[in-house]
């Protein structure tokens, strides 16, 4: 089966080229056609204006998500590598799907908005990737990218165009959706050995520092994520400011509760890497509403607390009782805070912070996002399990050496016994697989 | 005392929310109030214009300072983690303090300038953090954040509003201030074991590479730091260009002198990580003056030399004779180059490069910054030592495991004796604590 | 000879300060002189407009190239450190050389364009650095920086001003030039021990992750690299969009072929770190032409394939048969894709995608770039070998400890035999040098 992955990747890329050949054009072609005597300055100027916010989001996708998932000691190559692969496919497929749905099958004219929507579609898949990290093959991830983005674009159309709900930072349509989709897939792909904790599912000192690179780039650029599709001017300004203050407040409560729930009052790197970001998720839906800076800080504070408690109490419960193993704890970083975000928007609208949507439509959007995600995730999980196949065997979970050429460093006693020397071998030495 | 840290963090966050509730509003509310019929476009448009420079500074605060301090082999979690915690509190408190002082107690309207000032206030604390790194508790750092920003804002008001001195890149008000404040605190918290070099105060190969991530992001974005609060147009242009050329020149002299002062002509990572940045500090005060590109290069060259010589000769002297232990050598990166920056501005004004300030006012600003920092630092040190308390014991200095859940990797001989296997344990094995 | 490096660095910096003192002025001085009554807003405003794209390129130079080369397990300090040193000199020398040639000896007025050209000149040297990484001294690299930028600016003038060829993303003038220049130098500095694979020329797990930081920042910001000198508006828009789609397609084919060419279908980190970027190189020359998004995707797909095949088949051939050892495989990332880029532009012009250049002029530009690079590289190699000298001895290749203070971690058996303790020593333990 060694030809399966390259063949799938090549066929998908050829398919993308054909789709783009038929459906995608430069932005300027449309304008030149319609108004032959005007300059095409407006849309193209707008391009560079939003380019800097777009770049921030782009960094979140590749460095942010990619490195956040490198926390496992033997799964760094796959985390950052499969993240890049999935994102490269997702950007193409997301650009196409979003464009074709919103243009009702007409030609897509590539502007900065399409590229932003490509990144946002991809973010959804990368969140779900966190739930199944270490337990899925690259080929399965390619298939999941195609399926999930289709479901995502469908739900996003429903929420935005039919319900006309407000979700500027996509707490519901990206974060809650991605988390519950991933959990549904993880439930289908569950294996019994995950229950007691897999011996390879551990972080190491350096892998936790690599993960902090991801955390920090996500944290710093989250205001751009929540504001990039906002109306320029006041709305965009508020989306940046609200997200900024939600995030800073979230850090304080995440640290406080991380220390509170640990026996000796120590901090847990898992909480710091993840729960400090929950404020960005939770403020997403109402980021462009007049919730006031202190309102954002309250939302962020709650998100930090909810996220840490989720890691401490819900994740073990999910693993042991619900047979859903969530590798990165995406339920605590994206799922719960996404739900908090949806609920916060209902409260905000009740308090008069926005008139662009109604409480009922927000509730419908939240329900639709979770519902579509769970159904889509279950179907996708079944397709991956029975049709795509190729899941790694349990004992190879969380292990880069299944998909990557890895040189193992082994330590061998010198004859002189003075030093212990370091050698590099291709086969995983048996001692490393002992617990 | 395991409840102390979470309680302090929660109380501080609640206090911030209350302060923001009473004193902080959106920028647009002010404008709408005063000019009900005009659009609020001006200030909000300005927001996105400066947003890209602001993001650069934001990256310096979190990734730059955070990773620069990860050079210690067993203190990476605390370096990057407490950096994030301190910054999150500092952004809130700095925004509030700066706003309330400059608005004379009136409501603060959050714009990009306030957010920039929040970052700048925080930078000051993070510089001081470098001096006490590894020898202070998270709770003490929270207290120091509150106290130092209050002193910082006071001195900054004095320098800018009373002396009307020029300090666009804040060589004096941030860098010299932060360094001498930190040294004063470090002097109070000194412990005898630091004299001979603490066994845990070492870098490792990988921790030095992590630190270079910090160095590079600081280096690349320093022109934004020095220009972000400059007048747009010519002044901002000059601040960027001057800082850029000071930095490139500084790299050459820092490398040359690092090699010169080492016995075998080798380079020292400590110098490369820090002294290459001294050019950014030293050109700060006169960054927006007409000092010509070659003038910037002379300032940068001098800063690189001064900084390396400081690391080689002053730091050991401070540790052994003055009983001031400066973990990251902030005196060499921020203190001395900050003083060079203040003196350079006096020379520049004498040579006619600027008419916005006088030599006497620049000297007053330098004196005030150092004086306020030392007095503020001594008072803060005493408060931390006798009132806040909770400093880690000497033998736990520079050790993440005091505040973090850390899994230690230990190597245990296999029964078969062929390989040495790796296990992870929660307790620090005794062999690791042997020198 | 321990004084050689610092003396060379200091003399070069002094020379730069003198050159800048005589030839370089602020942009505003020119304007004030010529039009005393107008504001200098135009050029200075343009400065901040392009500043965000410039920053992206700046990050590529320092973090991108710097960390991409940290993949070797014992050469991370030199990779990121000499990269910084070379770049700091290259920015000054490149700014001067480019300015003086294009201004025909007149004064250079520093604007954003000069700073961008400084970065681009430097990129060329850093590409060549990849070919000789680990086999050359810092002093030799300083000399190579001076010589190569002179040759680069000469060729760039020929291509742009004489041939009037189109090469917006510099596939030919930077990438092909840098690669073939580096290969020529590597050929001259070849040592027999490289043939069988040097024992220190290995990556380690963590060093490969550090390298991915470089890969990702290069990948994400490549659209800025290819568009930063493009005409604003439509041309810049197309350069960004075309590069973006070439890169995403390239990732898919690079992954597919990496898996295809490996015996067990695994992925190889060397391919992922490098070949995923080939799409950015190959689309460079025609990035601002109307090649359509699907055209970019075809170019990117081909580049990914060519690059992986180059690593698999050409690099071993070069090492063993041609006696050219290319440490980072720059021929596969920059050389071949650069040639593909030149050829693609000929095809694009043939198909009517651009009228700004002719097929013949593009061919001349490609020939000139490769020819100048090879001749310049051979001359430079001979100068480095026989005049500058100081190349490390073969057994010290790929070893940081020749130029850096490095503490080695050695593992020593405890008397109790229970644990193995870790100590840090200054001398490389002999066991580490055993294979």
From TrEMBL, chains A, B, C:
Signal peptide: none annotated. Its main location: membrane. GO terms for molecular function: ammonium channel activity; ankyrin binding; carbon dioxide transmembrane transporter activity; leak channel activity; methylammonium transmembrane transporter activity. It is a multi-pass membrane protein. Residues 15-389 form the Ammonium transporter AmtB-like domain. It comes from the Eukaryota. It catalyses: methylamine(out) = methylamine(in); CO2(out) = CO2(in); NH4(+)(in) = NH4(+)(out). One of its GO terms (biological process) is ammonium homeostasis. It holds the Pfam family Ammonium_transp. It is found in: Membrane. The chain crosses the membrane at residues 7-24, 53-72, 84-103, 115-134, 172-191, 203-222, 237-257, 294-314, 334-353, 365-388. Coiled coil: none annotated. Keywords: Ammonia transport, Glycoprotein, Membrane, Transmembrane, Transmembrane helix, Transport. One of its GO terms (cellular component) is plasma membrane. Homodimer. Heterotrimer; a RHCE monomer interacts with a RHAG homodimer. Component of the ankyrin-1 complex in the erythrocyte, composed of ANK1, RHCE, RHAG, SLC4A1, EPB42, GYPA, GYPB and AQP1. Interacts with GYPB (via the N-terminal); this interaction bridges the (RHAG)2(RHCE) heterotrimer with the SLC4A1 Band 3 I dimer complexed with GYPA. Belongs to the ammonium transporter (TC 2.A.49) family. Rh subfamily. This is Ammonium transporter Rh type A. The gene is RHAG.
């Amino acid at each position: 089966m060694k030809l399966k992955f390259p063949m799938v990747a090549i066929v998908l890329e050829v398919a993308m080229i054909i789709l783009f050949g038929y459906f995608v054009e430069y932005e300027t072609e449309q304008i030149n056609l319609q108004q032959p005597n005007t300059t095409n300055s407006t849309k193209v100027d707008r391009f560079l204006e939003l380019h800097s916010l777009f770049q921030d989001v782009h960094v979140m996708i590749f460095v942010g998500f990619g490195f956040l998932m490198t926390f496992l000691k033997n799964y760094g190559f796959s985390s950052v590598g499969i993240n890049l692969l999935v994102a490269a496919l997702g950007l193409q497929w997301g650009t196409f799907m979003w464009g074709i749905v919103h243009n009702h099958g007409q030609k897509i004219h590539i502007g900065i908005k399409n590229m932003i929507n490509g990144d946002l579609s991809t973010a959804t898949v990368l969140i779900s990737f966190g739930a199944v990290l270490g337990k899925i093959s690259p080929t399965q991830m390619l298939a999941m990218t195609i399926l999930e983005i289709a479901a995502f674009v469908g739900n996003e159309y429903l929420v935005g165009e039919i319900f006309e709900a407000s979700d500027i930072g996509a707490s519901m349509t990206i974060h809650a959706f991605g988390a519950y989709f991933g959990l549904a897939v993880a439930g289908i792909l569950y294996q019994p050995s995950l229950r007691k904790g897999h011996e390879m599912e551990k972080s190491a000192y350096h892998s936790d520092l690599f993960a902090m690179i991801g955390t920090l780039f996500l944290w710093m650029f989250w205001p751009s994520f929540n504001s990039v599709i906002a109306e320029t001017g006041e709305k965009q300004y508020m989306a940046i400011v609200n997200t900024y203050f939600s995030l800073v407040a979230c850090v304080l409560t995440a640290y406080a509760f991380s220390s509170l729930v640990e026996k000796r009052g120590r901090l847990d790197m898992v909480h710091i890497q993840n729960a400090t970001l929950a404020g960005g998720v939770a403020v997403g839906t109402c980021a462009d509403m007049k919730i006031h800076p202190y309102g954002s800080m309250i939302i962020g504070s709650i998100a930090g607390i909810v996220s840490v408690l989720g890691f401490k109490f819900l994740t073990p419960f999910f693993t042991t009782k619900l047979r859903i193993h969530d590798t990165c704890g995406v339920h605590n970083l994206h799922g719960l805070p996404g739900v908090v975000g949806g609920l916060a928007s209902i409260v905000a609208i009740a308090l008069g912070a926005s008139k662009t949507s109604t409480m009922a439509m927000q509730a419908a959007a939240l329900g639709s996002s979770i519902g579509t995600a769970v159904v889509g995730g279950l179907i996708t999980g079944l397709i991956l399990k029975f049709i795509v196949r190729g899941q790694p065997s349990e004992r190879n979970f969380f292990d880069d050496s299944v998909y990557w050429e890895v040189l193992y460093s082994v330590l061998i006693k010198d004859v002189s016994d003075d030093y212990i020397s370091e050698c590099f071998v291709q086969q995983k030495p048996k001692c490393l697989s002992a617990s």
